[in-house]
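User: I'm putting together a teaching handout on how multi-component assemblies are represented. Below are the sequence lines for each component of a complex, exactly as they appear in our records. Could you produce the 3D structure of the whole assembly as structure tokens, so the students can see both representations side by side? Please keep the chain order the same as the input.
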Amino acid sequence: MTTSTVTAADTSALLDVCKRIRRHIVEMTHAAQSGHPGGSLSATEIFAALYFGGVARHDPANPQWGRRDRVILSKGHATPVVYATLAEAGYFDREVIPTFRALGTELQGHVVRNKPPGVEMSGGALGMGLSFAVGIALGHQLDGLADDEGQIFVVVGDGELNEGQNWEAIMSASHFGLHRITAIVDRNHFQNDGPGDEIMRIDPVGDKWAAFGWGVQHVDGHDVEAVRDAMLTARARSDAPQVVICETVKGRGVSFMAENPAGWHGKGPSDEQLAQALEEIDGGLT
Amino acid sequence: MTSSSPAAIPVPPPAAAREAYGPALVKLADAGHDIVALDADLSASTGGNKLAASHPDRWFTVGAAEQNMISIAAGLASTGKTVYAASFAVFMPGHCFDQIRVQIAQQRMNVKLIASHGGISVGEDGASAQAIEDLALMTSLPGMNVVVPSDAVEADWAIRRAAEDNEPWYIRLGRPKLPIIHLDESISRFELGHAERIREGDDLTLIACGLMVEPTIRAADALADEGVGARVLNMASIKPLDEEAVIQAAQQTGAIVCAEEHNVIGGLGSAVARTLAAHCPVPMEQVGIEDRFGQSGPWTALLQEYGLTAESVAVAAKRALARK
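Assistant: Of course. Below is the structure of the complete assembly, with chains in the same order as your input.
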């Protein structure tokens, strides 16, 4: 049987991966002069832990491996963090990254399934990822996969939880007993129009998931070890679907983005801003 | 089917196109197809419950949640299943167009959307339950096959044919019991992208789909009595459209009438008009719902009220002939 070829990185290697992912995010949104850096930076530790922390079992040399875990970006605008992670994991050549959003590129403005290989679901229309995961989990159940095979990790935004379809999916995952699904909420407190508490309040968000029958964990979403450990705990559970609510900061790692998250939902940095951002990223999270 | 000697074949009782769905699913599962079917709390009406009874592991209901159903269908298809999802045409695509657009059409998923209760022939439930715009929505999606069978037999053929490829399909079925037109598989059978020639004629061509095929045949027979030779095409496959048959009809007969149980905007008539305008413009008339919503009433009374009758087709034929 094929197994994941990716072994878990140690903490210092994980921190290095986070830096490289952040660099790619600001560089590609700078090159495109568009895209969504804020909600990509907030999800950086989540993706680093998934792909490099030994959480998701996957094989960059065999992206269609049938028993692989699936990582699904439901908040599809955070595409830069996906491309950055897949490139670092070896799914495609880093040299392609600057073509992000250019005419004819595989690196579309919002993720497109199998472009590049490793992208499991097309995104951009919010609220669909958890339902898609329910379908995969039902398929894996029909195919008789072992309990710890074919896990599905779905990264959703907190603003995205405004979309009603999420709650249809959350209800049905619990109803069908789909323990293979782990949702990860990038709780960065900002959505397109501003602070989530002003636009549409979702608290008490953990209680809502729990009321729908999910196991709930809360972690600091920028503590990559904590994120990894919470997801590994969720992965090992086989009684109910699990959610890890990651407290994050939109734009984390780049001060002028983190201080003005509403201004950095969907645009790319200037040349000067890029230089500052790269310098700060190399310094690590403070 | 041709008009020649159908007399030897016993005529079955009328049946609703939607009645074909459940038995077709069971046949597919029995034959070993790796299918999964989904319903959204309407399984007794769609017929999905027949698969639930015979192959319970192959059927899921998601409750009244069409958006969830469509995205689940896409997820299931991503694991290699052939997925059927069924609801009423007003709810699917009505409730879940974006899920169909992004997750089924853009991802080119192997999902067959089976929409029952299409059109105004739903009857007493009224406008909110009567899909008159679903074909416009579905034909506008790149890569979506859109099929409107004319009777339960053709519906069975189309539903099972859909399992033979990996493409997304939308098949619209009707609620009322209708006469069976397709009496024998040896005479004809459903082919995606191919018009079925039901009557021969050189004076004009009547093109119909779904519930309007049978009255259109009657209109052609009435016109024949008056000495007008009307060709009849059953255009169950709206997309891909049999453009060759349309162009040939225009060239050989010089006038076209389209008849459908749908808004005259965005359905069969629009597809045919587009082909005619590009290749062979000839006079064309439409029989359909004239851009207004439905209402409550017995389905037969509604068809009269909205002009979806053999008489309307014959009158439209004369208008088209007068413009030649």
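A couple of points students might notice: The CA atoms of residues 110 and 124 of chain A lie 5 Å apart. Chain A has a mean pLDDT of 95.
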